[in-house]
Amino acid sequence: MDRITAANEVAFRIGFSGHSGHLRLEPLPPVESSNPLRSLPDFILPPAFPAETSESLKDILEEKYLLPELDPHEFSVENSGRQWVFDWFDSAKVHLEPSAPRSVVAPSWELPFRRSKKTGSTGLWDPSSVQIDVTELIGGPQDSGTLGRMPGPAKDFVRGSMNNRPFRPGGLDDSQALERALPEGACNGEWVREVINGGVAQAVPPSFKKGLELGCLKEFPYHWKYTNEQLSAAQIATEENLNRYSVQFDDLFKKAWEENVIEESRSDESSETRVETKESDAIDTVPEAETRESDVIDAIPVAEGEETEGINAIPKAETSLDEILLTDPGGTTAKLSGASNDGRQKEGEVWALVGGSEEIVNHFYELVPDMAISFPFELDRFQKEAIYYLEKGDSVFVAAHTSAGKTVVAEYAFALASKHCTRAVYTAPIKTISNQKYRDLCGKFDVGLLTGDVSIKPEASCLIMTTEILRSMLYKGADIIRDIEWVIFDEVHYVNDVERGVVWEEVIIMLPRHVNIVLLSATVPNTMEFADWIGRTKQKKIRVTGTIKRPVPLEHCLFYSGELYKICEGDAFLPQGLRAAKDAYKRKSSSIVGGKSGTKLGAPTSVGATQVRQHDNSGRDKIQKHFKHQVVDNLSGTSGGHQNSWGSRRSESSLWLLLINKLSKKSLLPVVIFCFSKNRCDKSADNMTGMDLTSNSEKSGIRVFCDKAFSRLKGSDKNLPQVVRVQNLLRRGIGVHHAGLLPIVKEVVEMLFCRGVIKVLFSTETFAMGVNAPARTVVFDALRKFDGKEFRKLLPGEYIQMAGRAGRRGLDKIGTVIVMCRDEIPEESDLKHVMVGKPTRLESQFRLTYTMILHLLRVEQLKVEDMLKRSFAEFHAQKNLPEKERLLLQKLRQTTKSIECIKGEPAIEEYYAMASEAESHREHIAQATMQSHSALQFLSPGRVVVVKSQSAEDHLLGVVLKTPSATNKQYIVLVLVTDFASSTHTPSVSSNKLQEKESGNFQQGYFIAPKGKRGMDEEYFSSISSRKGSGVINIKLPYCGSAAGMSYEVIAMENKDFMSICDCKIKIDQVRLLEDPSQIAYSKTVQQLLEQKPRGSKYPPALDAVKDLKLKDMDLVERYHACNRLLQRMAENKCHGCIKLKENMMLMKEQKRHKEEVNALQYQMSDEALQQMPDFQGRIDVLKEISCIDSDLVVQLKGRVACEMNSGEELICTECLFENQLDDLEPEEAVAIMSALVFQQNKTSEPSLTPKLANAKQRLYDTAIRLGKLQEQFKVAIDPQEYARDNLKFGLVEVVYEWAKGTPFADICELTDVPEGLIVRTIVRLDETCREFKNAASIMGNSALHKKMEAASNAIKRDIVFAASLYVTGV
């Protein structure tokens, strides 16, 4: 403040003391004058302060910063025992700590419908007063940093600035982001110990390269005294438990693995109480200073409906270790951050609440007696519910059909903001909707408009803007956000948009907690799921209301051969109407003589007629030109022969004339005809040459309106071919609406259609999304569309959105929807799918962008991981976290039996690890070798093999009985079943019958061959089976039995089920084993198998994978040798051959499984389990590589520049600037090259460029390829060529260059085949890019680039391209 002169030049200074706002009076040194003696006052001694020296400054710094005082009460003898262990920072009274906030008495606001009971004698409401802290009065938008910030300059009030930090998003109060800002030494008390014990001070802060050397810290004298006599028994028990487990969380998991902790917990079982007892008694038994633990336990999230079972399910062996595990480390942070009651809700609680009750509707005007705005009509049920909840200050989600009256809710939010002297923001996905809403609401409220190129009354209380503008304001911390009370999201189902849907999720996540949300959406199946995500993300209750009832019911018809067939009414499908249409199709097909008789009845909608019609209208599109030859053959639905293009057009125009005449006779005009091609809209309208649907008075009105609207165009712009053509169509009552039209032409068409003078409007689907203009009838030209990648059927949501334009509320009793049928009748299933099927679910389109990462990295307290966790894609995973936490605690409480070694130091872990690795190698080798040709040659009948066991612990020995054949594709193998397996199988009935059959008259013995024929096995077998086998299998698989004291089983298997092939074979009799089963043959086969087992081993030696099976793959050979080395080491281990090896291996396996389950749960609960975490890590590496951030994730200058780039790809724009690619270009050339960053059409004619522009184009393309390869190198899912092709489109470089040089618009349109509307849209976006480059130049300090961008912006800002919107300025 200015000096205050008193007496003889004695000056004082008035300042504010601390954060409390107390005034203080400080004398200043007197001003030197020519005669110092005469200037001295008579009543005061000279008050001059001693001069500051380096020693005095050092003393002051040491006293204030290096010698903190300790509160004598907190550090008293009674309290020192606990405080010195845990709470260092909260108990140390540092000099610079802000003073306590003041308390004030303020009136408490009450809902209007509750005030009547408390009115005073005057009849006026007499509010009650409460005493509150000042911090609660200013607790609206929290800053993302630890300290608040002052409002910025007025020029950045609306748009914000890169120098501002974003406000802290609502719902992040429970985030651990603040803990990231505290280094480990600050968290565990090491820094405080350093301050007290003295020594070398830490001088370099994190992320700093240099620090300030202040010398060594002085030792602070202290001593300890304990007086446990005054502590209660409950306090002592709590002290011991806390001291025992005073460790970090990671160490806690480590302790949980140790046996002694588990045993200790079990020994304390009798002295500990259950968790539910602690929850109820902790507050009564523990003093106030010790209740934090019990408070946190009370706040443990429990799923709704499971609270009782969850608590009762916890075993009685609950120990103090479990209490520490259950403690939320962020509990105190949440309290200090001032979280509201909603922020401490249980995680399992449902945040989305469905609608209200009948009481709200029946007593609405009693509950809301003083409405912020009155409506001239009776409100619907859902509107009353929404307004009631808005009055209560709740967030609302309204889901209703088109024209149901959702705008009433938005208007009431605007009225509440005006009444409360706050602000409301309305966001829409399309600029046209924003302009229309501005026109509609301009007369009712104080409305402002903010889009990319328009800024009207940004200081207004009600702001209408695009969602991208709001996102930019949030990231740049615009101060206007402090005043916002409501944010209204219109057309929320647009979140499904692949390209821009992520913007909605970003904005919803980034909104501060003081902002309430109003969501307006069409009906979607998962409304509750989406609302629950928003409520859980923002920690707010979301009231869901709406209606599935249409204000004007719809009827759906097919138009075929001049007749309408009703096939659906409301939500009821009418099959008889479809059958009538198919009968007409049959009659017409059978009446055709010669040529093709039409498509097969009932065939699905084919490429002909519907898909090909799309291609006919491409004109300029190469993809559509590919199908142009099909148009001549298939366009007409009434003839099968070839026609010329004139005949095709004539047939198409006659079809439209037939339909419109039919609609006109039935009074079903005006009609909107949806065609899914811009070129098809134009051709269809142009072909209707002989139709005139307007009266003379309507023609006069249209002419006057067009003259006024187009009068703002200059010179030749008034005579542009598109302007002249559209005016001729409009005079006849025919309109065209698509993205290729000039903006002013589109607005003229929209306004005239709303006036009712346009009777037929050919439009693309953008009319249904961006214009609120219902019609009497809606016609679908086809039920297929090209979505930019492929032709596909319409989705139910798309059909419902467009069909909803049929029926004008208050004018029509019913809306008519017609589907055109030319060559065929669509399938019933396809019609049901689009007409009465479920609309498209709201799905997350969230993806990481470099701009998002850089904006969040600018603020250390906001983590990118928090943004990922709160995306709609991660909603279900985050919702299940509390259940996983409880499961993890249960796993940690489980005990595993310890392994006792009888040979001294246990080595079972090493042995188990080697065995597991060897088994892995062996499985890889076996899987590869069993598929090889060499192995198949060895797998002949009689070959001994080792087979995988499905039930037993060990593998099984077997023999191949039959190889695969034409009738049987598997190997038939006899295997010896283990004792465990055989105990579960009884000999099959077939084997018992076999014994009886073979015994015949010799029931007590076997058939004995003559003595002279017992010599050789071959003779023995040949005597039993002398005939040749037929290959037929006469036994039922699996075939079980027992022989020679062993159980066996005959099964079929694939070659992949073989573990190994043995080096021996036995002789078998296929006939007696498979065709004519004999018990003698099975006994002999089993005996031979047992004889092949060598002593001391389970299996015969296997064929060597390298020598015998010819294994040649380098990786497999390396695995083979590694497996042999491991087996050798296992044989040398002392556990090998131990009598307890099997038991200990089972215990070790159980311990490993338990540990893997715990690790899996910990991983699922960590940030690493997020779906987009790998992509995030790759993008972070890319940003480091190009120096946007440093190794400590601190945003550098290049990163700040990248944050400014919103209209083009941020990395390409930033590299272009830092490589000075625009320096050698003139402003016109620079803006022409920049057009490649914002132009969006893929297929265009090749532009003709000057050598300088061609060189600049190649340079920019090479930069994009380099960045694409860099991202591919760091595992970002990007193809370099596709990345460059998608983000750089040079189709309008020549056009923009000529436009910047001053060429008229009519002339530049001749240079390209791009529609005029897309040219204007590109140049308008280019102006926004120039502003971004200009801001980037200011950050870089490049004045030359700043001037060049300003000149480029001025060069393109002229004439029709920047003609003001008719919605904004009026006509």
TL;DR of this structure?
With 1371 residues, the protein is α/β, with parallel strands linked by helices. It is built from 59 helices and 34 strands. This is DExH-box ATP-dependent RNA helicase DExH11 isoform X1.
Strand runs, count: 34
Which radius of gyration do the C-alpha atoms yield? 42 Å
Distance between the termini: 53 Å
Q: Any low-confidence stretches, pLDDT <50, length ≥5? A: 1-10, 17-21, 81-89, 94-99, 176-180, 226-347, 593-650, 980-1026
**What structural class do the secondary elements suggest?**
alpha/beta
Strand order of the largest sheet: 10-18-11-17-16-12-15-13-14
Global mean pLDDT: 76
Please state the overall shape, judged from the principal axes of the Cα atoms: globular
How is this structure best described in words?
This protein has 59 helices and 34 strands. Residues 1-10, 17-21, 81-89, 94-99, 176-180, 226-347, 593-650 and 980-1026 have low confidence and may be disordered. The strands form eight sheets. The protein has a nine-stranded mixed beta sheet. The protein has an eight-stranded mixed beta sheet with strand order 21-20-19-28-25-22-24-23. The longest helix has 25 residues, at 1141-1165. It is of the alpha/beta class and 1371 residues long. 43% of the residues lie in helices and 12% in strands.
